[in-house]
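no rush on this but wanted to send it before i forget. what follows is a protein written twice so to speak, once as letters and once as structure tokens for the fold. mainly i need to know what kind of three dimensional shape the backbone takes. thanks a lot i owe you, the record is right below.
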Amino acid sequence: MLPIRIRGLSKHFGATAAVDAVDLDIDAGEMFFLLGPSGCGKTTLLRMLAGFVEPTAGSIQFGERDVTRTPPNKRPTAMVFQGYALWPHMSVRQNVAFGLEVQGKRRAEVRKRVEMVLDAVQLLPMADRKPQQLSGGQQQRVALARALAVEPAVLLLDEPLANLDAQLRVELRGLVKDLCRRTRTTAVYVTHDQAEALSVADRIAVMSAGRIAQAGPPRELYQRPRSRFVASFLGQANFLTAVVAEIEPGRLLRLRTPAGEIRAANHVRSTDSRGGISVGARVTCCIRPESARPRPVTESARQGVLRGVCAGSTYLGHATESRLDLGDGSWLTATVVGNSWSPAAGEAATVEIDPDDVIILEEGSGPSVGGDS
């Protein structure tokens, strides 16, 4: 396993910057995800790590070695592709052995290594079958075994589960995580699947327009996104514009919105050049649907809640999702798990939100008015 150090890495196709001056450090043995929408530059960045695409500028370092101009076959990497890329005329065993034979390994060593990795991906009984005799999930496991067989210091995965059905993706992402942990391989994994990234990654870099919008552990990115883009890309999010009415003891903020007042713990890093929040400041808040707790309206109006009218609910099996009209042109989605109370269409409700669950986004990251989910 090797650490990866990327500095000022760029790739231009004509006037278009596919990757734009990216700086990134990936720890040895880390499961690192590149996440973002189509066209954000994540696959181009991965292919530069593999050596398939030559950078326009910047450097790539594996451990102490600069590999920026090193050809792919001279890098300590292996790649798993979205489309499996298996040799159809070879058996499973021969496909997995191919890279080891190219390396000039002895026959006994090749046989031992192939059997070990096929056993790890639970395909040893199918070693003599051809790829066309396997399911999609089994073929992807062969591709993973082939990459791990050569014992790469860096494993590169380009949306390896994208062609599989939802349940099989869940099963295989656990297998990928387990194998990388056991082999202590540094892995860089490209995906647009938020659930895949949140459940498997040690750290995630969310990309937008060729740049890193934010990088960090999954929980940090989900609970403390810095921008509207990151918040909305990592799951559902409500966005509300509010004015800071008071800064209370303990750095709690009392926020005033047209739909009522809420409180927020001041987790924001900075909202202006002075690095703080002042009374009267206009801020954009992010509230996750599962953090919004709808309650029936009572005769005595509660403090510190939002008020709205349910426009409709969707039953999801494990939860009910209600969409509330807050009356000022903005909306709030609340997800209620299990059999807890949720409003019916046309019913008024109040919404309680814990101050720790109100995320204040950095300046310029939210809308000027209203909100959406």
